[in-house]
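Why does residue order matter? Because the sequence determines the fold. Keep that principle in mind as you read this record.
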Amino acid sequence: MGEMHPCRNQPFVEQAGSPGLFPSTTNPAFNLGPGTSHYLVIGDWGRTAATQSIGIDQCSVKDYGGNNDIQGRLQQAETAQLADQGVYPGDTTNRFQQDWAQIYQTPKTPNLQGLTWYNVFGNHDIVINGSVEAQIAYTSTNPKWQIPSNYFLVDLPTVTGGPKIRAFFVDANPFIASYNVTGQKYNKAYYQAHLNAAYIDGQISWLTNNLAASTADYNIVIGHYPLFGSASQYGFDQTGTATSPYPGNFNAWQKLLTTIYNNKATAYLNGHDHVMTAGNPNQPGVPIPYNGHTVFLTSGAGSWGEPNDSCGPANSYLYTNGGDGGFIIVSANATTFQSDFFVLGSLFSQCTITAFADKTKAPIISDNCSLGQPNACCNSPTDSCYR
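Structure:
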């Protein structure tokens, strides 16, 4: 065996869990005034078995400790990302133990074990037949694991006097046109069963009606796949072929983006690409004009950073971390919805995106966001971008 490293016992977010990152409520960087609630956004956090789930190759040079003051957890990740498998049907004693309970629900991760996880399904959750159903069933077994149906809405926990945040979790797997190919590994029973206009249009109608009826201070939409800002831009690509999925099956991406814009959702949050980005919905050539309000944030590097996933088109992002591990902390009060990007190895926010409850206001991008760049390998042969 090689040298043992302390940080191998903790996932990315716990390694960075120092007082400088999760500050007291009096810290001015995160204190937006009375009634400020905090949420953690971490995507693609699961790997195959515990030793893989913690991103050994990107261990921080320092094994950070400390406590945090996060009041709730906003979780928009799939399970078993990069493992090419989901949760085995009925197997809550194996994969849930290895990839979630034995990592995020133990004293090894004191900053995380008390938080409730809200999840959304991604591509690796549909590879094994029965995986989706097993995860939904586990919600009734463990209240810290929340994914009660294929798509759902929830009013997130908040502090006394805090804002009302309504989160809409969508199942975008059937939207992906490129999966509808014989032999494609995601073209399994779940995908085929939901590859129909009734399911897709029904979900879009559900989202549209509930967004329109919501009286929350902030409405956020969580899906697994990115719309803007990374190598995959499902809100931009408009050729409509099987290998180029906008508008996707039954024009799903166009319909999703349209209802997000029309109802001026505060944010769209996603994972899938293993990178941290703030997408640019106003980039040249966008097929649907930007509404001037919604922010698009990718947090897909919870267990593994992928440099190639930062190689999006020019002008596609407002911030990118180049493919390193990371996560987002949201701080919200009655008027302001602030998202801070953190990269493993740094105790300081690398980029701050500020959105507002006032739907007439445009988001504010902090100056340091412009310092983020795609990985240098993006200018090299494609295969050099993979770890």
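The mean pLDDT is 78.
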